[in-house]
Amino acid sequence: KNFNQGGATIFQNISFSDIGGQATAIKELQEALDFIKNFGKMRALGIRPLKGILLTGPPGTGKTLLAKAAAGYTDAAFVATSGSEFIEMYAGVGAQRVRKMFQTARETAQKIGKNNALIFIDEVEILGGKRGQTTSHLEYDQTLNQLLVEMDGLRADDKVRVLVVAATNRVDMLDPALLRPGRFDRQVKVELPDREGRVEIIKLHTRNKPLAADVSINSIARETFGFSGAHLESLANEAAILAMREGLTEISQRHFHEAVDKVMMGEKLDRRPST
Ligand code: ATP
C-alpha cells in the first residue's frame, strides 16, 4: 500500500472503469460526487456542501480504488492516509497530524492548480472509534475531535474545497458523531463481488496477460465464491507465476485452478454458502 506519511500521493490514473463488479457502489458514489462537479448549481440552490463520504465493506473490495477514482472524477488532488497513522503515545500528536493532513491536502491542490482536494482515510475506525469506549486513553478522543473540527470548518467557498472519503469494515465501531449531517453523511456499501462481478474483475486483472485458449473466465469466477477483488488480483498473479515456473508463455486454466488453492491457503477466506 502506498500510504505516504503526512505527504501527498497523487493518482491521476485510476478511473471507475478500472474497478470491476461494483456497479451499485460506483453509481452511488458518482451521484454524491456530482454535487461537487456541479458546484455552481448546488450553491445556487443553497445545498450545503458535501464534506464526507464513508465507504463500508470487507477488505480488498476496492474501497481505495474507488477513492482514487473519485479524486480523478472530481479533478481533485488525492491525499491518502490510514487511521493507524494517527495513533500515538503522546497526547496531542494525533490531533496535530489531523490538522497537518488537511493542510497538506490544501497545499497539494494549490501546488498542482486544482480547486478540489480529496482526503482518503483508510481504517477510519482506528481514529474514529466510539469515544470513551475504544480505549481509556484520552489521546484518541482528541484526534477524533480534531477530525470533527476540521470537517465542520469546511466551507463551500474555501479556495480549495476538501472532501473526506473514509473507509471502514467496522462501521459499528464508529463514533456516531462522525455520521451526523455535515460529516460522513453519505454511506456507500462496497460488497464482495458476485459471480458476474468476479468475471469483470478477473478480466481486468488478466487484460495484459497471455491466456491459453482453454481459459474460461466464467468457470474461474464460479470457483472463486467469496473472493474479494484483492484475492482475484492475487489469483491472476499466482496463475502467471505457476505458468512461468513451467517455462510456459501462456497461462492455462489449470494454473488458475491451482492458484485458487494457493490464494485460499494464504488467507482464511470467509466463504459463505455458495449461491
Ligand atoms: P482495505 O479495506 O484492505 O484497505 P480496499 O477495499 O481498500 O481494501 P483496495 O486497496 O482498493 O481494497 O484493493 C486492493 C487491490 O485489489 C487493488 O489494488 C486491486 O488490484 C484489487 N481490487 C480490489 N477490488 C477490486 C475491484 N473491484 N476491481 C478490480 N480490482 C480490485
Primary descriptors:
275 residues, alpha/beta, five-stranded parallel sheet, 5 strands, disordered N terminus, binds adenosine-5'-triphosphate, metal ion binding, cell cycle, ATP-binding
Task: Summarize the helices and strands and which ones pair or pack.
Layout: H1 23-37, H2 39-44, E1 52-56, H3 63-73, E2 76-82, H4 93-111, E3 116-122, H5 124-127, H6 138-152, E4 161-168, E5 186-189, H7 195-206, H8 217-223, H9 229-245, H10 253-266
Bound molecules: adenosine-5'-triphosphate.
Describe what this molecule looks like in 3D:
With 275 residues, the protein is an alpha/beta fold. The chain is built from ten helices and five strands, in the order H-H-E-H-E-H-E-H-H-E-E-H-H-H-H. The chain is elongated and about 55 Å long. The model is unreliable at 1-8 (pLDDT under 50). The protein binds adenosine-5'-triphosphate (ATP). The site of adenosine-5'-triphosphate has 19 residues, from helix 3, helix 7 and helix 9. Residues 49-194 form the AAA+ ATPase domain. This is Cell division protein FtsH. It comes from Desulfocucumis palustris. Belongs to the AAA ATPase family. In the C-terminal section; belongs to the peptidase M41 family.
